[in-house]
Amino acid sequence: MKSQALQDLVSKIFSDEKTKQQFISNPNSILSQFSLTEREKKAVLKAHAKLGTGTYDSKQFEKAIHTNEMWI
Fold first, then answer.
1. Which helix or strand (DSSP H or E) is residue 27 part of?
2. What is the number of domains present in the chain?
3. Which of 16, 26, 40, 54 could tie 36 with a disulfide, CB 3.0–4.6 Å?
């Protein structure tokens, strides 16, 4: 990841269940708490729209890994 703010956002979403649920229901409320560039915000929203917000063992993650299996 490019910026510390983006790393902090991802870390917070995956380490704090309350933040994760708030992000799922209202992503902009969480994004506004971090000093992200507009490009980073758009990238987060696009990834969330495509994959959802899951965990390492979620179906979305499994599907994304299968899609890119040949690169691993």
1. helix 27-31
2. 1
3. 40
